[in-house]
Amino acid sequence: MEPGVTPADGSVEGKQWNVVGHTYTPKLHSENAMIWHAIIPDGTGVPPHIHPTQDEWIVMLTGNLEVAFGDKVVKAGPGDTVKMPMGIAHGISNVSGAEATCVFGVAPSRKLFDLFGQLDGVTDPEELVRISAAHEVDFLPPPAE
């Protein structure tokens, strides 16, 4: 990692991705960690999934999110930090009625930077699951009806 500053309006390699309707802007990427700014519109989310090789966290800036760990749902608002340890299933949703902004991070970075590049604009759920599995993110099957 090079020392320095990623400006507020800047990103790693000039990248910005649309992943599941969220805007992800990478702010730091090294072998050891990845950090990205996220804009999460109301009514969007990320279905339950597992990072088997990474710890993940969210630092909330504005708005509110709900994070599901199995049947347990926790709410996070401005200033809160959500901790999602590797191997633990979690899903994220914004049902607050307003946009949320936050900073996500993972350690180590593993294949996530490449995953977001490949998921940019993907809308087909089966394709999203396939691409994610090839990059060490495993989505859980939908609940039985």
Briefly characterize the structure.
The protein is mainly beta and 145 residues long.
Structure description:
The protein is mainly beta and 145 residues long. The protein has one domain (14-131): Sandwich (Jelly Rolls), CATH 2.60.120.10. Helices cover 12% and strands 41% of the residues. The chain contains two helices and eleven strands. Strand 6 and strand 7 (72-76) form a beta hairpin. The chain is globular, with a radius of gyration of 14 Å.
Write out the strand line-up for the largest beta sheet, numbering strands in chain order. Answer: 1-2-3-10-5-8
Biggest beta sheet summary: 6 strands, antiparallel
- CATH fold label: Jelly Rolls
> In total, how many beta strands?
11
In percent terms, what proportion of residues is strand?
35-45%
Class derived from helix and strand content: mainly beta
CATH class, named: Mainly Beta
* Count of all domains: 1
Protein name: Cupin domain-containing protein
InterPro entries: Cupin_2 (IPR013096), Flavonoid_dioxygenase-like (IPR052538), RmlC-like_jellyroll (IPR014710), RmlC_Cupin_sf (IPR011051)
Domain Cupin type-2: 38-102
Pfam family, one: Cupin_2
